[in-house]
Specification:
Elements: E1 5-13, E2 16-28, E3 31-36, E4 38-41, E5 49-53, H1 58-67, H2 79-82, E6 97-99, H3 103-107, H4 113-133, H5 151-158, H6 160-163, H7 174-200, E7 203-204, H8 222-230, E8 237-240, E9 246-247, E10 252-253, E11 261-262, H9 264-277, E12 280-286, E13 289-298, E14 301-304, E15 306-307, E16 310-314, H10 317-324, H11 338-343, E17 355-357, H12 358-372, H13 382-395, H14 398-403, H15 409-419, H16 427-445, E18 448-451
Parallel strand pairs: 1-6, 5-7, 12-17, 16-18
Antiparallel strand pairs: 1-2, 1-8, 2-3, 4-5, 8-9, 10-11, 12-13, 13-14, 15-16
Helix pairs in contact: 5-7, 12-16
């Protein structure tokens, strides 16, 4: 993120889900910081024990935030905003729910992009927790800089099989990819129990003394609890420095100014149909506006709802659905499952991983170039570039291919993000990349046709 922020997250372990807050890395006084809602317990031993406070409901978390200042986020730049948030604002979105119990089930699935991304995100948050909670190097008399309280976490993160998760689904394609995925599962079988045992020693399931373990509903009941917290219109907040709370999923606007919203449950229900036909709704955001279209892959080549290299965009799911039922010819009409698409009443609601905001990366590069260096890492490139590559492939945008080639500055930055997602983006690099990305967006925008 380009500015200091605080994000609500949920952690599931031993069939109970706890809610807490995470402050992703931010820069202050020339140093990079990262923290979770927690503290160091008073202990007669050296240094005490660092803990993350977990709460049985967003309501309990909100109550703690309103009344307590004795924790590691009290001095965060946006904490004064957090104290005014209610349970709806502090209910995490789907991207910030981490099921530590479900890791084995994910590894047992086929390595599609959802499984890879979910597993990578879970391993990433585990590494961040260990980094923030580890006090092994805090003693001035400590001679071994490599010593850690989280040996299993460190061993897990060092495994090349786990490192391959950062490369995305492409690392698990073909026979060698299948072997790599089996390797990931093998590492988890070997280390995951030790990983969660190390972490659980630092999880405070009493909510800083405000709750008991008996207050936690079973993990299977959490969805109902969250629905009660949110109501029909509730949205969690990502709080950023200098801003009012910024809305985030699970209830979100699909098109700018369109006023169309969908709950996470509605998106998931619709997604079951679209997955079954192999054609997925996609949202694309460019300076001219936001629009919905459809995309599938034919022999691993992207194909969009469009014609002659032009991609058709629609302002709302209803507009897109109406077009699909009409007689106009397009490049998806020959897909075997198109008849099901034309006949369905399931709304085309894009999942978060199929939303490509090309303007967002432009804003990030501008902020970094203007002085927010150190607050953004190369992961910012991953999702928008994924969408751009597919659009360029379908529309035959050779200039975009040139700008994203491994020898071009933008292509090198993308490759750096694939190899080392956490590498921070420097101001001087952002200043060079911003005009190149703007040219990419201009090229892509020229292939988009907004339809009524």
């Amino acid at each position: 993120m380009a500015r200091p922020s605080i994000v609500p997250i949920a952690l599931t372990l031993d069939d109970r889900t706890g809610y807490t807050l995470w402050a992703p890395p931010w820069e202050e006084d020339g140093e990079e910081w990262q923290a979770f809602l927690g503290t160091t317990e008073d202990d007669t031993g050296a240094g005490g024990r660092t803990v993350v406070h977990l709460f049985p409901t967003p309501t309990a978390l909100a109550a703690f935030c309103r009344t307590s200042t004795d924790h590691d986020l009290a001095d965060h730049p946006v904490w004064p905003i957090v104290v005014g948030l209610d349970a709806e604002d502090l209910t995490p979105d789907d991207d910030h729910r981490f099921d530590l119990d479900g890791v084995y089930d994910i590894a047992a699935e086929n390595p599609d992009r959802w499984a890879v991304e979910e597993l990578a995100a879970t391993v990433d948050i585990v590494s961040r927790l260990a980094e923030c909670l580890d006090t092994a190097g805090g003693d001035d008399d400590q001679d071994d800089d490599d010593e850690t309280q989280f040996e299993a976490v460190a061993e897990l993160a060092a495994k090349p099989e786990i490192g391959s998760l950062g490369l995305g689904v492409d690392a698990f394609v073909g026979r060698s990819g299948e072997d790599a995925w089996v390797g990931v599962g093998g590492v988890l079988d070997e280390l995951w129990e030790d990983v969660v045992e190390e972490l659980n020693e630092h999880f405070d399931w009493t909510g800083a003394g405000s709750a008991t373990p008996e207050d936690y509903p079973a993990a299977s009941q959490v969805e109902d609890v969250d629905a009660e917290q949110q109501g029909d219109e509730g949205e969690p907040a990502v709080v950023q420095a200098g801003d009012e709370p910024v809305a985030a999923p699970p209830v979100r606007t699909i098109a700018r100014g369109g006023g169309v919203s969908a709950t996470a449950a509605e998106v998931a229900t619709a997604g079951a149909f679209w997955e079954s036909v192999g054609i997925l709704p996609v949202e694309i955001v460019v300076p001219e506006g936001a629009g919905l279209t459809l995309r599938c892959y034919v022999e691993d080549v992207a194909r969009f709802l469009g014609r002659d290299g032009e991609v058709f965009l629609f302002a709302t799911p209803a507009d897109l659905a109406r077009f699909c039922k009409g007689p106009e010819s397009h490049d998806l009409i020959e897909i075997a499952s198109w008849a099901e698409v034309a006949d369905t009443d399931v709304p085309p609601l894009p999942a978060d991983q199929d939303r490509y905001d090309l303007t967002g990366l432009s804003e990030v590069l501008t902020e970094v170039a203007d002085g927010a260096a150190g607050l953004v890492d190369h992961r910012s490139f991953a999702q928008p570039v994924e969408g751009v590559r597919d659009l360029a492939e379908y529309a035959g945008l050779t200039r975009v291919d040139e700008l994203l080639s491994p020898t071009a500055p933008l292509g090198r930055a993308v490759a750096r993000g694939e190899a080392d997602p956490r590498a921070v983006l420097r101001a001087e690099d952002a200043a060079t990349l911003r005009p190149e990305w703007d040219e990419v967006v201009t090229q892509v925008s020229g292939a988009l046709v907004f339809r009524d």
